[in-house]
Specification:
The structure is a single chain. The protein is mostly helical. It has a domain at 1-47. It has helices at residues 2-9, 14-21, 25-46, 54-65, and strands spanning 75-80, 99-104. Helix 1 crosses helix 3 (25-46) and helix 2 packs across helix 3 (25-46). It is flat, with a radius of gyration of 19 Å. This is Nuclease HARBI1. InterPro entries: HARBI1_animal.
């Protein structure tokens, strides 16, 4: 799972990610394939779109924002963290703070 998360978080060359994590490129490829296919296979169980008030929300988005096909919104925020020992510079936000960018619908 760590291999897949690392690849999805910063999709670069599989060989480079493998070297970073101490595995082969083929292992990175197989791991990403298996994890992503497993998530997709279970997505109907995990991903649910709202059924109540769906049409009200859709009409509101259309009338207020001229956005007729919206079915939801994403909220993003930065959560402050301590600088990680590895790759700490990858967690610096635009204000120079170490954060994780968290998204939720």
């Amino acid at each position: 799972m760590k291999i897949c998360l690392r690849y999805l978080g910063d999709p670069g060359y599989q060989q480079g990610i493998g070297q970073e994590l101490g595995v082969s490129q083929a292992t990175v490829s197989r791991t990403v394939d298996r994890v992503v296919n497993s998530i997709v296979a279970q997505s109907n169980e995990w991903i649910k779109f709202p059924t109540t008030n769906h049409m009200v929300a859709k009409r509101t988005w259309q009338s207020m924002y001229k956005f007729p096909t919206a079915i939801g919104v994403i909220e993003c925020t930065h959560i402050g963290i301590l600088k990680p020992n590895r790759h700490g510079d990858e967690y610096i936000n635009r204000k120079g703070k170490h954060t994780l960018n968290v998204q939720a619908t």
